[in-house]
Amino acid sequence: MPTSRVPAAVDALLAILRAAPALAGVVILDGPPVQNLTGPERLYVGWSPDGGPAVALVQDFNAAGARTRDEQFLINCYAEVWSGDIDMQVQRSRVFELVAAVETALRATDADPEAPTLSGTVLWAHLTAGDLGQEQSEGARAGLVFTVSCMARI
Q: Any idea what the Cα angle at residue 4 is, between residues 73 and 55, rounded to 5°?
């Protein structure tokens, strides 16, 4: 029995996002950047530039008898779009399009009813928070820190 569903859930989230047609061409990274990336669109799973935790989690017993535990956790993510252009509106709109693609990938559909469970690793997962940052430095850059909240039973 696993101590936590976090590793499996993060792996499943990465697989789902890498397979999402709306994110084709976006560099999807597992954790923090390890090199100077030059692509204009990036999506980080388990990392945000504010230095917070990759995943924050809490557990408690599900019921009397201590046979199962509930685990709630927050996977911190970051979407970033930049361009040499100075038009911030274009970058801001595009970063929200990327996060919308993440949200769509996590929603259940007739073709993929298991999507909100991160391929069965959690009871449910969904986007619950976000913070937009913008800067002008050698062009316009928009970044959106967002949280995928999950509930699992272990």
A: 35
Q: Which residue has the tokens 């980080």?
A: 44
Number of residues written out for the chain: 154
Residue 96: count of CB within 10 angstroms of its CB: 16
Model pTM score: 0.92
Q: Tell me the β-bridge partners of 34.
A: none
Compute the distance between CA of residue 17 and CA of residue 20 in angstroms, rounded to an integer.
Answer: 5
CB 94 within 8 A of CB 43: no
What is the three-state SS of 38-67?
Answer: CCCEEEEECCCCCCCCCEEEEEEECCCCCC
* pLDDT single digits (tens) 53-95: 999 999 998 876 677 889 999 999 999 999 988 899 999 999 9
